[in-house]
Amino acid sequence: MQLLQTIFWIYVIVAVVMAVLYLPRMLFFVSAFKKQKKLTNDQSNRFAVLVPARNESSVITQCLDSLKNQSYDNFDIHIIVNDPQDKTMEIALGYKNTFVHVIQNQKCKGDALDGAFKNILKDKSKYDAYVVIDADNTASKDFLLEMNNAMASGKQIICGKKRVKNWFQERRARTWVTNCTGLIYTAIDDLGNKFRSKHNNPVVIVGTGFLIRADVMNELGGWPFKTLTEDMELTINCILNNYTSLYYEHAVIYTEEPIKLKAANKRRLRWVSGFAQCDRKYRKAIKKKTFDNGINWGYFEKLYGLYPLIIFAAASIVMSVIGLLSWFFVRDMSVTLLARYALLPWAVMYVLLFMFTLLKIIVAGKDMHVHLYEKIIALFTSPLYQLQYFFVYIKAFFIRNKYCNWEVVERVICEANNEEFAQKIN
User: Fold this and answer.
1) With a cut of 70, which residues of the chain have pLDDT below it?
2) In Å, how far from its chain's centre is CA 260?
3) What is the CA radius of gyration of the chain?
4) Hey, is 1 helix, strand or coil?
């Protein structure tokens, strides 16, 4: 019993130390409540909008309609399919200034982008910048206009603001899963990237709704990022190659989130597996870049800023497992002690995640266009949803390199009237 108590107090010390180490990261949260300054640009840059759209005929119309109705008109659309028989191709060709690239044998999103970029870059002077969005996205009418304005910053990579399409659709277009997954953009952008942009630190790039200037793409010569999380790979390469980046909240795009837990878990498994791929591929290079000539705190924060939370979560899980096992091996183990050693760590994690969820909901504000009761349900279920990552990590560990498929995502088909939806979001 004495050993168990000692282990518990070690856990408490670790938890306190990790909480102290995380305190500087909480300064990021202040920027979430401040509106970014709007930029203006006298120059009209020509864009190529790339849309990977393999087997996306069910949603591509809404995406293309939103691009057709942009307030900015100096751009072409490039749709990328895998099969010339894909119905997406026929739909896309019915739109003005729209080109289709058939890139066969796509194993990941990176393959699709790489093939299309290599085709487009044959004429390197045709476009000033390239915008990547997903087929299930709906762009706000000023999305490309604001992307052009953001280019006045001089940054090489610009990330727009992601809002959740489901939150502006019919009630049946979302579940508690949708509301939990949708808050991830609030966490990444408003509670992270906003502060990074203000202080000229590299931002975390999410794989849709971002712009890359022509100088970067001409240097890359294609899209060399082929892991399951090509956006994370791009983020790391921004650090390695000193590409500048910006999060710009006025360029808004709407993204679709899953409504079923099974679909959400598939995506989370892909994320975790992709992060592991990136870690193996770039670990040595990124450490060297971060710690050469002292510590680059901008890089350090983005790459290692969540480590205190990860260490705390790992310590809590270990403490809980030890406490549970003690119930079977320690004779005088009471129910009270079982609760203290096995359940308290999970309770602490739940409370902390509950508070973070509350912060995300407050920051999301009107972006979370749902009923009050849905927000309350999300407040209590989101901590459990995030704790479920523990099991996702376990599964990812056992399958490792076996999970390499770029799977078709089940789409939410609810809004038949695209014009009505466009009015809601604009």
Assistant:
1) 1, 331, 400-426
2) 18
3) 23
4) coil
